[in-house]
Amino acid sequence: MEKILVAIDNRHRAWEALSHACSLVKRIDAELYVLLVLSPGHKDRALADIETEIKKRLELIIEKAKSENIIINFYLVEGNYEQEIMTFIEHNKITLLTHEANEKDKDARIRDTRFLRCLRSQLSCAVEIVVPKTKPI
Question: How far is it, in rounded angstroms, from Cα 16 to Cα 133?
């Protein structure tokens, strides 16, 4: 059985990757995991608000998935995003990381590419990159 992970934090939102992973779970024999990585330590008000908004949206997605007979195993941790992903993959024997490409701006894309290169070299699973759909004008 495949084990699919979608990881989210305040900089790496992955709504389309999660939607894609849900579609994939419907077609193959797989378990779906969502890892929400929160920033460690003291948070300012703006960051706390963002994290609360992410949690609310995830709860809605999980409920919708349940109505479609998709079970999402949800985990919440505090720590470094990259390190928490690697630890989670190793401990849970994840076979596929579904990552959403960052399409905000050139600098964000460059950081995302570096992040993925570093992560891929240390992972024991496949990585699928989901490119967000652009909205028509």
Answer: 8
